[in-house]
Structure formats: structure tokens, C-alpha cells
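User: Can you help me understand a structure? I only have the sequence.
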Amino acid sequence: MSESEQLSELIGEIYDAALDLSLWPKVLAESARFVDGFSAALVFKDATRKSGNLYYDTGHIEPHYKQLYFDNYVKLDPSTTSHVLAEIGEPVATADIMPYQEFLETRFYKEWARPQQLVDFVTAVLEKSSTGAALFGVFRHERNGPADDEMRRRMRLIIPHIRRAALIGRVIDLKAAEADSLADTVDGISAGMFMVDASTRIVHANASGHAMLAQGSALRVVGGKLAPTDASAEQGLTEVCAMANEGDAAVGVKGIAIPLTARDGERHVAHVLPLTSGARRRAGSSYAATAAVFVHKAAMDAPPPQAVVAKLYKLTPTELRVLLAIVQVGGVPEVAEALGIAESTVKTHLMRLFAKTGTKRQADLVKLVAAYINPLVS
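Assistant: Let's start by predicting it. Here is the structure, written out as C-alpha cells:
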């Protein structure tokens, strides 16, 4: 198949996984192949606790190494803190975080990646919170080589769709659901769900959706059509629903998470799932619907303190990683051990941190970070 044909088929399967979560391992395997990767996963990483949680993967990483990663090596993985600075939806390779030759000298590479012949891990942030981030990541094998421009280009083609499907799957939170019973299945979820046609005319709504419309604060019905009370969001929702009528690929990067502000000031977010192809077509055709719109309250998460510090002082991902390690574990030898890098490398980054933050001692760096975590610190 041509690239466009492969992409169209893959996008359809990605959106099917939003309703049937058991499809994610297969979808991730096909996504890895599409971008010339070895394996792929959906994970959550907490930069503060240096921990992680695996949602779905392709099964290509041996269970022994998978266990080792989350028990020991997630703390050493450079990508564990990289999401703090990364833009949502943008692929980030190891070389974007630190010099690649420096990576090859880390304990993480020597003890965990090299034995598996893995040479890179390219991640994309799907969603951020004050505690961490949900990530889509693809491993590169020695036979693939480190990430290149072609891999990044292909990842950018599928990341918006993976992000939309993952966010909708989290809202619905189904273990497994048949697409043709979508209306019955989502009736009990807390998010409002509206099946609409290409003009946003409502053809079905779940109980939460009817309650939202009755309240009239975030959503209303105008001439039988779904309309946000937030005028700035109305055009975005209308455009994405019209695009959904053209097929899965047409919705692209627009409207992945449409922000809505209710009349009472409460923030909501809408996600649009196309229903015109794949296994979802049965659900759409039953109701003459082209899309399902999911609306729920938005989390009021402030940027994590690490992100504020990094942006203010223009820190690189590696500098931020060293700074956080200094705060958490102490001196240069301890930081080198914790990060799996040479003491000389830690000292180099420490000098840059002093220069950028205007500090002279490690204790000053600890105090600086503490002030952002607790403003009462002086």
C-alpha cells in the first residue's frame, strides 16, 4: 500500500481503539511499523516522583526488562523529565534532550537499552498535568538507527489521532465496548455525549448530555443543533464535526480538545470522535450521525513548578534533570549515581545552572526550587 493508504487504515484503527481499549496493543504495533520503530507504548510518567505507569504496549519488550524499567531504570531514563519542557504533540528524541554521545555513556543505556539493542525512544506528550504526563512513545532498534527526520515526519501524521483517541478513551473509560452499542454503553458515564450529524444537529444524547443542555451553562440547543454558549468555541466545534463527515483523516489536528467556558466561568473541554468509518460506522449509521462529541469538566491544573523554573531560567532538559536531582538527592556524587552519568558531566551542568540562575552554591539551587514549590519559603 501507499503511505496515504497505510495512514488512512491506521487512523481508522486508532479511533476504533477509543471505544475498544483491547485494540491498543495492535494499534501501537502498527503505529511502530508505520514510523519504522521497534515497539511502542502509552505510558504515564511522573517527573517529581521519577515513576511511571504503563497503559498499553506492543509486548515486544521482554517482561523482565519491562519490570526492571519501572522498578529501577525509569529514574535514570532521560525522557522521564523531558515532558516538562516538551510541547504537546511534538515528537522528542533522545538527542533533543541531551547530546547523543552523552546518552551512550549513561547507566540507562549501558544497563537497560544496549542489552536489548535499543538505541532511541521518541516520545510525544498527549496530555500534561501538575503531576506528570501521558506519553506515546516509540523505541528504535539498532537496525533502525536513532530517530531521523523521516520518523519525526511520520510520527507527526499519527500523533494528533492517537492523542484524540487516548483522551476520548480516558473519558469513556471502557474495558471493551462494541461500537454499535455506543449509545447504550456511554449513557451512564459522567461526561456528556452527543451524537451529531455534519451540521452538529443532535440525533442522540446520553443522560449527562441532556442534563448539560437543561442547565444551559456550557451547552445549548439552537435550531436542533449543539451549540456551546462560548461563542469562541462554536466555530471550532462546527468545523470539526463537518470534517468528521469526510472521514477519520480529515479531522486532523483541529479540535482535539476544544476548550469551552461556561456562563458560570467553569471550564469544560470537548473531544470529537468521527463515526463515518471503521467499526464506529455501525454506531453512526444507526443514528445518521457523523461524530460523537464528548464534553466534560476540565481539570484546573497549574503548570508544575519544574516547568515554571525551567521556562524562567531557560534551562535545557538535561539542566532541569540535574537541578531536580540536586534538590532530591544532594551532592555531585549522589546526583551522578542517581542519573547514571559521570561526575564530570554533572559538574559541567551545575556550572551552567549557577550561571543561568545567578546562584553560587547547591544550597541556593535547592532554596530556589523550594520557593516555587512553596511560595512561603524565603
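Now, to help you interpret it: Residues 174-181 have pLDDT under 50 and may be disordered. The radius of gyration is 23 Å. Let me know which part you'd like to focus on.
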